[in-house]
Amino acid sequence: MKNAEEHLDRACICLREGKFKDAVNEYKEAIRLDPGNATAHKALGDQYYRETKLNEAIQEYEAAIKTNPCYSDAHYALGIALYRRGLLERAAQSFQKTLEINPNYHIARYWLGLSYYYVGKLKKAIAEFEATLKEQPEVIIALYHLGIALAREGKIKESIGTFEKFIRDCPESAAAYYHLGVNYFNIGDVEKAMANFKKAVQLDPSDERSKQNLAALEEVKSRFF
Q1: CATH superfamily of 1-97
Q2: pTM attached to this predicted model
Q3: Distance separating alpha carbons of residues 77 and 81, to the nearest angstrom
Q4: Cα–Cα distance between 54 and 46 in angstroms, integer?
């Protein structure tokens, strides 16, 4: 009779062969034989997550953590699944726990920042994005979200500097130019606002926000300047 580890090995083979249902069955059999196998619960959770079965994934990640409370990968995976389910406070707790167990789990800090941002904890979000960029400067997307959070905090000039830095690395980001346009408008620089909205539309002709803002500013300029 196969033991749990043999079923885990079989599951890996099934995944490589694209036999996803068989892989799930192998994971379930491994868990039946060894209910306290945190690796099997985490792996089954990962497969459920890939299949967008988030509730089932969450259940398996929680089972893995119950067996091994210091399983940082399971805490992180649980955080991601909770975030995707919109359970942001719980997601933040999972990312915090990940970092408590492993302070070098830097990507968890980025997701912690996102979770804080979407529950309105802007100062905490800004701190986490800044820490992410200090620890992992290559996580450029953190700059983008930092720029948005700074703007929402009313730190417009800091937001402008952040988005300009982001654009140096991601010059094709229409969304970043849109946010720059809004920021420049908010400090009264209509010309730069228009220039950034124009650039956003050039990069993404479907960007209705930038089109509308640009049209409104062009009308105002024609009337009053």
Answers
A1: Tetratricopeptide repeat domain (1.25.40.10)
A2: 0.89
A3: 6
A4: 10
